[in-house]
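Subject: Predicted fold for Probable membrane transporter protein, 365 residues

User T.R. writes:
Posting the sequence so we have a shared reference for the thread.
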Amino acid sequence: MTLLTPRKPFLWIWFLWLGAFYATWCWLAFGRGLWPEAVAHWPMALSMTFGSYIAGSTPMGGGTVGFPILVLLFDMPATLGRDFSFAVQSIGMTSASIFILARRQPLAWAMLKGALLGATAGLPLGIFLVAPLVPELWIKLVFAVIWASFGVLHLYRIGEIAGRAGMTDFDERWDFRVGVVIGFAAAALVAAVTGVGIDMVLYAALVLLCRADLRIAIPTSVLIMAWTSVLGIAIKSVSTGVAPGVFGNWLAAAPVVALGAPLGALVVNLIGRRPTLVFVALLCVGQFAWTCRTEWAALGWGGLLLALAAVGLCLLGFERLRRWGALLAAGRDAAGARVEHRHAAARAPDGVAAPAPPLARGRRA
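User M.O. replies:
I've generated the C-alpha coordinates; pasting them so everyone works from the same file.
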Protein backbone atom coordinates (compact mmCIF):
# COMPACT_ATOMS: atom_id res chain seq x y z
CA MET A 1 0.00 0.00 0.00
CA THR A 2 1.52 3.31 -1.06
CA LEU A 3 1.24 6.02 1.56
CA LEU A 4 2.67 9.29 0.32
CA THR A 5 3.53 11.97 2.86
CA PRO A 6 5.68 14.59 1.13
CA ARG A 7 7.01 17.31 3.38
CA LYS A 8 6.14 20.57 1.69
CA PRO A 9 2.46 21.52 1.33
CA PHE A 10 1.21 23.54 -1.60
CA LEU A 11 -1.76 25.36 -0.10
CA TRP A 12 -1.56 28.08 -2.74
CA ILE A 13 -3.29 25.62 -5.09
CA TRP A 14 -6.26 25.44 -2.74
CA PHE A 15 -6.41 29.23 -2.39
CA LEU A 16 -6.31 29.51 -6.18
CA TRP A 17 -9.26 27.10 -6.40
CA LEU A 18 -11.19 29.11 -3.78
CA GLY A 19 -10.57 32.33 -5.67
CA ALA A 20 -11.81 30.81 -8.93
CA PHE A 21 -14.89 29.33 -7.29
CA TYR A 22 -15.95 32.45 -5.39
CA ALA A 23 -15.40 34.59 -8.48
CA THR A 24 -17.72 32.29 -10.43
CA TRP A 25 -20.28 32.24 -7.63
CA CYS A 26 -20.28 36.04 -7.37
CA TRP A 27 -20.81 36.27 -11.12
CA LEU A 28 -23.83 33.96 -10.83
CA ALA A 29 -25.27 35.68 -7.76
CA PHE A 30 -24.70 39.31 -8.71
CA GLY A 31 -23.79 39.35 -12.39
CA ARG A 32 -26.71 37.13 -13.36
CA GLY A 33 -29.10 38.52 -10.75
CA LEU A 34 -29.50 35.25 -8.82
CA TRP A 35 -28.81 36.68 -5.37
CA PRO A 36 -32.53 36.69 -4.40
CA GLU A 37 -32.74 32.97 -5.20
CA ALA A 38 -29.74 32.26 -3.00
CA VAL A 39 -31.25 34.27 -0.15
CA ALA A 40 -34.57 32.45 -0.54
CA HIS A 41 -32.80 29.16 0.23
CA TRP A 42 -30.89 30.40 3.28
CA PRO A 43 -32.05 27.48 5.51
CA MET A 44 -30.02 25.09 3.38
CA ALA A 45 -26.95 27.31 3.65
CA LEU A 46 -27.36 27.27 7.43
CA SER A 47 -27.80 23.49 7.50
CA MET A 48 -24.74 22.90 5.34
CA THR A 49 -22.59 24.90 7.74
CA PHE A 50 -22.73 21.79 9.89
CA GLY A 51 -22.94 19.44 6.92
CA SER A 52 -19.71 20.75 5.44
CA TYR A 53 -17.88 20.11 8.70
CA ILE A 54 -19.15 16.53 8.65
CA ALA A 55 -18.03 16.20 5.03
CA GLY A 56 -14.46 17.23 5.74
CA SER A 57 -13.95 15.51 9.08
CA THR A 58 -15.71 12.15 8.65
CA PRO A 59 -16.12 9.52 5.91
CA MET A 60 -19.56 10.94 5.11
CA GLY A 61 -20.34 13.46 2.41
CA GLY A 62 -22.16 16.71 3.00
CA GLY A 63 -25.19 15.12 1.41
CA THR A 64 -25.45 13.01 4.55
CA VAL A 65 -26.83 16.14 6.22
CA GLY A 66 -28.39 17.69 3.13
CA PHE A 67 -30.43 14.61 2.20
CA PRO A 68 -32.36 14.23 5.49
CA ILE A 69 -32.78 18.00 5.83
CA LEU A 70 -34.41 18.27 2.41
CA VAL A 71 -36.32 14.99 2.48
CA LEU A 72 -37.32 14.58 6.12
CA LEU A 73 -37.42 18.14 7.47
CA PHE A 74 -38.54 20.07 4.38
CA ASP A 75 -40.59 17.15 3.00
CA MET A 76 -38.99 17.34 -0.44
CA PRO A 77 -38.80 14.38 -2.87
CA ALA A 78 -36.00 11.90 -2.28
CA THR A 79 -34.80 12.45 -5.84
CA LEU A 80 -34.20 16.11 -4.96
CA GLY A 81 -32.15 15.04 -1.94
CA ARG A 82 -30.09 12.70 -4.11
CA ASP A 83 -29.40 15.24 -6.84
CA PHE A 84 -28.63 17.96 -4.31
CA SER A 85 -26.14 15.63 -2.63
CA PHE A 86 -24.27 15.22 -5.91
CA ALA A 87 -24.38 18.96 -6.58
CA VAL A 88 -23.29 20.27 -3.19
CA GLN A 89 -20.60 17.62 -2.74
CA SER A 90 -19.17 18.44 -6.15
CA ILE A 91 -18.10 21.72 -4.53
CA GLY A 92 -17.57 20.85 -0.87
CA MET A 93 -15.86 17.50 -1.29
CA THR A 94 -13.84 18.77 -4.24
CA SER A 95 -12.65 21.70 -2.14
CA ALA A 96 -11.76 19.35 0.71
CA SER A 97 -9.96 17.04 -1.73
CA ILE A 98 -7.85 19.86 -3.15
CA PHE A 99 -7.05 20.91 0.41
CA ILE A 100 -6.03 17.34 1.32
CA LEU A 101 -3.86 16.97 -1.77
CA ALA A 102 -2.31 20.40 -1.28
CA ARG A 103 -1.40 19.49 2.30
CA ARG A 104 0.09 16.22 1.04
CA GLN A 105 -1.83 14.08 3.51
CA PRO A 106 -1.24 10.31 3.39
CA LEU A 107 -3.66 8.39 1.19
CA ALA A 108 -4.27 4.74 0.34
CA TRP A 109 -3.40 5.36 -3.29
CA ALA A 110 -3.65 1.86 -4.73
CA MET A 111 -7.16 1.22 -3.41
CA LEU A 112 -8.21 4.78 -4.23
CA LYS A 113 -7.11 4.43 -7.86
CA GLY A 114 -9.05 1.20 -8.17
CA ALA A 115 -12.14 2.78 -6.59
CA LEU A 116 -11.94 5.75 -8.96
CA LEU A 117 -11.87 3.41 -11.94
CA GLY A 118 -14.71 1.28 -10.57
CA ALA A 119 -16.86 4.31 -9.77
CA THR A 120 -16.31 5.75 -13.24
CA ALA A 121 -17.72 2.57 -14.75
CA GLY A 122 -20.39 1.82 -12.15
CA LEU A 123 -22.01 5.21 -11.59
CA PRO A 124 -23.41 5.70 -15.12
CA LEU A 125 -24.86 2.19 -15.02
CA GLY A 126 -26.43 2.90 -11.65
CA ILE A 127 -27.90 6.24 -12.73
CA PHE A 128 -29.42 4.86 -15.94
CA LEU A 129 -30.33 1.30 -14.93
CA VAL A 130 -30.68 1.08 -11.14
CA ALA A 131 -31.87 4.44 -9.81
CA PRO A 132 -34.97 4.69 -12.07
CA LEU A 133 -36.22 1.37 -10.65
CA VAL A 134 -35.99 2.44 -7.00
CA PRO A 135 -39.19 4.02 -5.57
CA GLU A 136 -39.06 7.18 -3.46
CA LEU A 137 -39.68 5.29 -0.23
CA TRP A 138 -36.89 2.84 -0.96
CA ILE A 139 -34.43 5.67 -1.62
CA LYS A 140 -35.15 6.99 1.87
CA LEU A 141 -34.86 3.54 3.41
CA VAL A 142 -31.61 2.67 1.63
CA PHE A 143 -30.13 5.89 2.96
CA ALA A 144 -31.49 5.33 6.46
CA VAL A 145 -30.41 1.68 6.70
CA ILE A 146 -26.85 2.16 5.45
CA TRP A 147 -26.21 5.13 7.68
CA ALA A 148 -27.80 3.52 10.71
CA SER A 149 -25.54 0.48 10.31
CA PHE A 150 -22.56 2.79 9.95
CA GLY A 151 -23.56 4.58 13.15
CA VAL A 152 -24.10 1.41 15.17
CA LEU A 153 -20.77 0.00 13.97
CA HIS A 154 -18.93 3.06 15.27
CA LEU A 155 -20.78 3.12 18.56
CA TYR A 156 -19.51 -0.33 19.54
CA ARG A 157 -16.21 -0.43 17.59
CA ILE A 158 -15.02 3.16 18.00
CA GLY A 159 -12.17 2.26 20.35
CA GLU A 160 -10.74 -0.24 17.90
CA ILE A 161 -11.29 1.92 14.81
CA ALA A 162 -9.87 5.09 16.33
CA GLY A 163 -6.91 3.36 17.95
CA ARG A 164 -5.12 2.10 14.85
CA ALA A 165 -1.92 3.46 13.35
CA GLY A 166 -0.73 2.92 9.78
CA MET A 167 -2.39 0.07 7.90
CA THR A 168 -1.84 -3.52 6.88
CA ASP A 169 0.59 -3.59 3.96
CA PHE A 170 -0.88 -5.87 1.30
CA ASP A 171 0.16 -6.24 -2.31
CA GLU A 172 -0.80 -3.09 -4.21
CA ARG A 173 -2.28 -5.06 -7.10
CA TRP A 174 -4.63 -6.71 -4.61
CA ASP A 175 -5.53 -3.32 -3.14
CA PHE A 176 -6.26 -1.99 -6.61
CA ARG A 177 -8.54 -4.90 -7.49
CA VAL A 178 -10.43 -4.58 -4.22
CA GLY A 179 -10.82 -0.86 -4.91
CA VAL A 180 -12.25 -1.54 -8.37
CA VAL A 181 -14.88 -3.91 -6.96
CA ILE A 182 -15.81 -1.54 -4.13
CA GLY A 183 -15.95 1.49 -6.40
CA PHE A 184 -18.10 -0.23 -9.02
CA ALA A 185 -20.58 -1.81 -6.61
CA ALA A 186 -20.92 1.17 -4.27
CA ALA A 187 -21.31 3.65 -7.12
CA ALA A 188 -23.90 1.58 -8.99
CA LEU A 189 -25.96 0.41 -6.02
CA VAL A 190 -25.56 3.10 -3.34
CA ALA A 191 -24.30 6.43 -4.70
CA ALA A 192 -26.47 6.31 -7.82
CA VAL A 193 -29.55 5.78 -5.63
CA THR A 194 -28.86 8.13 -2.70
CA GLY A 195 -26.19 10.53 -3.97
CA VAL A 196 -23.86 9.52 -1.14
CA GLY A 197 -22.34 6.40 0.36
CA ILE A 198 -19.39 5.34 -1.76
CA ASP A 199 -17.07 7.18 0.63
CA MET A 200 -18.43 5.28 3.60
CA VAL A 201 -18.10 1.91 1.84
CA LEU A 202 -14.47 2.56 0.87
CA TYR A 203 -13.77 3.83 4.38
CA ALA A 204 -15.26 0.65 5.86
CA ALA A 205 -12.99 -1.47 3.67
CA LEU A 206 -9.95 0.54 4.74
CA VAL A 207 -10.60 0.45 8.49
CA LEU A 208 -12.02 -3.08 8.70
CA LEU A 209 -10.20 -4.96 5.95
CA CYS A 210 -6.91 -3.05 5.77
CA ARG A 211 -7.02 -1.87 9.41
CA ALA A 212 -6.10 1.63 8.33
CA ASP A 213 -5.49 4.65 10.51
CA LEU A 214 -8.36 7.15 10.39
CA ARG A 215 -5.86 9.75 9.18
CA ILE A 216 -5.47 7.63 6.05
CA ALA A 217 -8.98 6.24 5.63
CA ILE A 218 -10.98 9.46 5.97
CA PRO A 219 -9.01 11.61 3.49
CA THR A 220 -9.09 8.73 1.00
CA SER A 221 -12.87 8.48 1.36
CA VAL A 222 -13.22 12.23 0.79
CA LEU A 223 -11.45 11.98 -2.57
CA ILE A 224 -13.61 9.13 -3.87
CA MET A 225 -16.79 10.99 -2.88
CA ALA A 226 -15.57 14.15 -4.59
CA TRP A 227 -14.97 12.35 -7.89
CA THR A 228 -18.26 10.46 -7.68
CA SER A 229 -20.17 13.67 -6.99
CA VAL A 230 -18.59 15.57 -9.88
CA LEU A 231 -19.22 12.65 -12.21
CA GLY A 232 -22.77 12.18 -10.92
CA ILE A 233 -23.89 15.78 -11.31
CA ALA A 234 -22.24 15.94 -14.74
CA ILE A 235 -24.07 12.82 -15.94
CA LYS A 236 -27.38 14.03 -14.52
CA SER A 237 -26.96 17.48 -16.05
CA VAL A 238 -26.34 16.25 -19.60
CA SER A 239 -28.74 13.30 -19.61
CA THR A 240 -31.71 12.92 -17.26
CA GLY A 241 -31.51 16.42 -15.80
CA VAL A 242 -31.55 17.33 -12.11
CA ALA A 243 -34.62 17.58 -9.92
CA PRO A 244 -36.33 20.99 -9.71
CA GLY A 245 -35.07 23.01 -6.75
CA VAL A 246 -31.53 21.65 -6.79
CA PHE A 247 -29.96 24.77 -8.28
CA GLY A 248 -31.43 27.20 -5.76
CA ASN A 249 -30.34 25.10 -2.81
CA TRP A 250 -26.92 24.59 -4.38
CA LEU A 251 -26.52 28.32 -4.98
CA ALA A 252 -27.17 29.02 -1.31
CA ALA A 253 -25.05 26.20 0.10
CA ALA A 254 -22.07 26.13 -2.28
CA PRO A 255 -20.18 29.13 -0.83
CA VAL A 256 -20.55 27.61 2.63
CA VAL A 257 -19.32 24.13 1.79
CA ALA A 258 -16.43 25.33 -0.36
CA LEU A 259 -14.79 26.65 2.80
CA GLY A 260 -16.51 24.55 5.46
CA ALA A 261 -15.46 21.08 4.29
CA PRO A 262 -11.71 21.85 4.20
CA LEU A 263 -11.95 23.61 7.55
CA GLY A 264 -13.65 20.51 8.93
CA ALA A 265 -10.66 18.46 7.80
CA LEU A 266 -8.39 20.92 9.62
CA VAL A 267 -10.38 21.50 12.82
CA VAL A 268 -10.93 17.80 13.48
CA ASN A 269 -7.17 17.40 13.86
CA LEU A 270 -7.38 19.76 16.82
CA ILE A 271 -10.37 18.25 18.62
CA GLY A 272 -9.85 14.63 17.54
CA ARG A 273 -11.85 12.38 15.24
CA ARG A 274 -13.21 10.11 17.95
CA PRO A 275 -15.72 12.55 19.52
CA THR A 276 -16.79 13.72 16.06
CA LEU A 277 -17.37 10.15 14.87
CA VAL A 278 -19.35 9.25 17.99
CA PHE A 279 -21.55 12.32 17.57
CA VAL A 280 -22.11 11.57 13.89
CA ALA A 281 -22.85 7.92 14.71
CA LEU A 282 -25.61 9.04 17.06
CA LEU A 283 -27.00 11.25 14.31
CA CYS A 284 -26.98 8.29 11.92
CA VAL A 285 -29.03 6.20 14.32
CA GLY A 286 -31.30 9.16 14.99
CA GLN A 287 -32.06 9.75 11.32
CA PHE A 288 -33.03 6.08 10.98
CA ALA A 289 -35.58 6.51 13.76
CA TRP A 290 -36.73 9.78 12.19
CA THR A 291 -37.20 8.14 8.80
CA CYS A 292 -39.17 5.24 10.25
CA ARG A 293 -41.39 7.61 12.20
CA THR A 294 -41.98 9.86 9.18
CA GLU A 295 -42.78 6.93 6.89
CA TRP A 296 -44.69 4.89 9.46
CA ALA A 297 -47.92 4.96 7.46
CA ALA A 298 -46.17 3.25 4.55
CA LEU A 299 -43.95 0.99 6.65
CA GLY A 300 -46.00 -0.32 9.53
CA TRP A 301 -44.59 -2.99 11.82
CA GLY A 302 -43.68 -5.24 8.92
CA GLY A 303 -41.66 -2.55 7.18
CA LEU A 304 -39.95 -1.58 10.42
CA LEU A 305 -38.90 -5.16 11.07
CA LEU A 306 -37.55 -5.45 7.52
CA ALA A 307 -35.60 -2.20 7.94
CA LEU A 308 -34.12 -3.42 11.22
CA ALA A 309 -33.23 -6.73 9.58
CA ALA A 310 -31.48 -4.81 6.79
CA VAL A 311 -29.45 -2.90 9.38
CA GLY A 312 -28.51 -6.22 10.95
CA LEU A 313 -27.41 -7.62 7.58
CA CYS A 314 -25.22 -4.56 6.96
CA LEU A 315 -23.63 -5.00 10.39
CA LEU A 316 -23.07 -8.67 9.65
CA GLY A 317 -21.31 -7.68 6.43
CA PHE A 318 -19.12 -5.21 8.32
CA GLU A 319 -18.20 -7.86 10.87
CA ARG A 320 -17.35 -10.39 8.17
CA LEU A 321 -15.14 -7.77 6.54
CA ARG A 322 -13.45 -7.11 9.87
CA ARG A 323 -12.84 -10.82 10.47
CA TRP A 324 -11.42 -11.22 6.98
CA GLY A 325 -9.10 -8.29 7.66
CA ALA A 326 -7.88 -9.95 10.86
CA LEU A 327 -7.12 -13.19 9.01
CA LEU A 328 -5.31 -11.36 6.23
CA ALA A 329 -3.26 -9.39 8.73
CA ALA A 330 -2.34 -12.58 10.59
CA GLY A 331 -1.30 -14.24 7.34
CA ARG A 332 0.77 -11.21 6.43
CA ASP A 333 2.51 -11.28 9.80
CA ALA A 334 3.23 -15.00 9.44
CA ALA A 335 4.66 -14.52 5.95
CA GLY A 336 6.87 -11.71 7.22
CA ALA A 337 8.12 -13.90 10.06
CA ARG A 338 9.01 -16.71 7.63
CA VAL A 339 10.92 -14.33 5.37
CA GLU A 340 12.82 -12.94 8.34
CA HIS A 341 13.66 -16.47 9.46
CA ARG A 342 15.05 -17.33 6.02
CA HIS A 343 17.17 -14.19 6.05
CA ALA A 344 18.43 -15.01 9.53
CA ALA A 345 19.27 -18.55 8.43
CA ALA A 346 21.21 -17.23 5.45
CA ARG A 347 23.22 -14.89 7.69
CA ALA A 348 23.90 -17.50 10.40
CA PRO A 349 27.42 -19.06 10.47
CA ASP A 350 27.76 -22.65 9.35
CA GLY A 351 26.68 -25.08 12.02
CA VAL A 352 24.68 -22.47 13.95
CA ALA A 353 20.92 -22.82 13.73
CA ALA A 354 18.89 -19.69 13.16
CA PRO A 355 16.21 -18.97 15.78
CA ALA A 356 12.86 -20.48 14.92
CA PRO A 357 10.20 -18.09 13.68
CA PRO A 358 7.41 -17.25 16.13
CA LEU A 359 4.28 -19.31 15.82
CA ALA A 360 1.73 -17.44 13.75
CA ARG A 361 -1.69 -17.58 15.21
CA GLY A 362 -4.69 -16.26 13.34
CA ARG A 363 -6.06 -13.39 15.39
CA ARG A 364 -9.66 -14.01 16.20
CA ALA A 365 -11.83 -10.95 15.71
